[in-house]
Amino acid sequence: MKMPRALIGVAGLLLGHVALAATPDGASIAHQGNGHGVVPCMACHGADGGGLAAPGFPRLAGLPAAYLRKQLDDFVAGTRQNASMQPIATGLSEDERAAVASYYSGLPVPVPSPAAPMDAAQKMVGEMRAERGRWSQGLPGCVQCHGPNGVGVGEHFPPLIGQSANYLASQLHAWQQGTRSNDPLQLMHSVAGKLSDADIAAVSAWYATPPATTTPGGHSP
Amino acid sequence: MTRYRYTTLCFALLLAACNRTGSSASMPAVSKSSSKPASATTVLAAFAPPPESSIPNDDFGKEVALGRQIFLEPDKYASAYVGNHLSCENCHLDAGRLANAGPMWGAYPMYPAYRSKNHHVNTFAERLQGCFRFSMNGKAPPLGDPVLVALESYAYWMSQGARVDVSLPGRGYPQLAKPAQTPDYARGEKVYQHDCALCHGANGEGQQVADRVVFPSLWGAASFNWGAGMHEVDKAAGFIKANMPLGRGDTLSDQDAWDVAYFMNAHERPQDPRYADSIPATRAKYHDTPNSLYGVEVNGQVLGQGTGKP
Fold first, then answer.
1. Is there a single domain that holds both residue B140 and residue B266?
2. pTM (2 decimals)?
3. Averaged pLDDT of chain B
């Protein structure tokens, strides 16, 4: 368990050819791929698993293993659609999916990259939707399931903080459009359907903005 | 519209819950005959509370704002009086503003009111005391306590424009029609595991993050006690039907709401603080209603044992 990473990598390469007999190594898949055509996760999700903000590749580091595993399974099942991830997830065996989910869940949460500053009006909308929702439409605030400051709750409600605005917005639109339908009890489908484009932009930027640059009283550590 | 209906009780849940049946909250016990349901239960309320941005920036406004803070985080701002980690907002959604989720603007204008629960006219402040004692499983702040002054100021501010002694549509929780089938533990358990356990946990324990409750405990030592109105099956069913799963209210069938309310309330929770002598005696005095499972044997266990302090 405490093998140096380089050694693990070498072992992974060797075992890759022997195939399925050995327990797959998550770190090896993340850094080198699985040896069967699946590219290394880090190519898109960053060396530290923090994701890439501009193209909207999400942070994986520190997310619950069960959540990550479910996403990979759902890419395979098609309840979460994505042109890049579906072939990748399908190219991983079940054990490999479990291993890579476990690996990323154990990584420390990276420091989020700086986000574009929000203007005051958008900040107000973002904070309102995040904290209070819009109950006149039956819309709960994000924090009511994702926890204070969007830190995530249990294995079903992943952290929002530390994800890029592009990623968060893309997912909210995906739920609206039905290209993502793997939410338990259709909770996100229901929520996303009540958000306007302006709401989505504002609340996504709100969670992508590191706490230090938001108003006092909003995000607090 | 006799005042009987308004025998509401504790905030959390209770309020809503109670008003409808007229039985006093945690305490049922009231004559069913006095329970004309508030009209208009599931209709969207016509009353619109003022926006929070209109809380005045003066000494009164400060009290309103403090009341709102207490409402949202009672264990932080009224810690001396709470015995669990629930929030008023767990049952009075949207900071007590949402119709059919026990809104403060539905309750405030109905007081003072005679309550069969304690056989005298209660002020709104006394009604608030009940919330702390039962729903929050704590102790009642004394009348005049800053906590009660702030909460009453918040409820008063929110009710501006509402007519006194008029039961507004959206007050309390909806009163569901009697279910086609008697509420059932096994059916309720299925509903619970399918629609509720995701957030509230397989054993009703709820979920916390960083010492903040995100999903409240529904039973057990950290939940509301046997004196709270939400322990009554009809009140819980109305709340659940209108508001659960959160953000997807009105998606469960009435039967499912009754069954899962029964299931939730067929579990042990902290003792009724009015307990005296024995479970049967306490039931006879405070829980003599088919909607209370206090003192009732379910799955071989007589409920009402309590849980001890969390």
1. no
2. 0.85
3. 87
Probe site for chain A from B98, B194, B199 (most A CB atoms < 10 A):
B199
- Judge if B152 and B224 occupy the same domain: no
B4-27 pLDDT, tens per residue?
Answer: 333 333 333 333 333 333 333 333
List per-block mean pLDDT (blocks of 10 residues) for chain A, which spans 221 residues. 49 47 87 94 96 95 97 97 96 97 96 82 95 95 96 96 96 96 96 97 92 42 33
Task: Show the domain range for B264.
Answer: 185-302
Tell me the ipTM for this assembly.
Answer: 0.84
Alpha-carbon distance of B154 to B66, in angstroms, equals 8
Closest CA to A199 of A191, A189, A211: A191
Task: Name the residue among A143, A152, A187 with its Cβ closest to that of B245.
Answer: A187
Quote the pLDDT of residue B80. Answer: 97
What's the pLDDT tens digit per position in B109-128? 999 999 887 889 999 999 99
One domain for residues B267 and B135 = no
Residues B242, B143 share a domain: no
Residue B210 contacts A where some CB pair is shorter than 8 Å: yes
Cβ contact, residue pair A148, B93, below 8 Å: no
B198 shares a domain with B120: no
Nearest to A191 among B94, B214, B247 (CB): B247
Q: How many helices (H) and strands (E) does chain A have?
A: 11, 0
Whether residues A148 and B209 touch (CB distance < 8 A) is answered with yes
- One-letter amino acid at A177 equals Q
**Given CB atoms, is A93 within the 8 Å cutoff of chain B?**
no
B/e letters for B63-89, b = 16+ CB within 10 Å, e = fewer, are bbbbbbbbbebbbebbeebbbbbbbbb
Q: Pick from A140, A143, A156: which is nearest to B247 by CB?
A: A140
Domains and CATH numbers, chain A: 5-105 (1.10.760.10), 120-213 (1.10.760.10)
What is the Cα–Cα distance from B149 to B59, expressed in whole angstroms? 13
Measured between beta carbons, the chain B residues lying within 8 angstroms of A138 are 247-249
Give me the CATH number covering residue B287. Answer: 1.10.760.10
Shared-domain flag, residues B189 and B149 = no
Report the DSSP pairing between strands B113-115 and B212-215.
unpaired
Domain co-membership, B12 together with B131: yes
Q: What is the pLDDT of residue A210?
A: 66
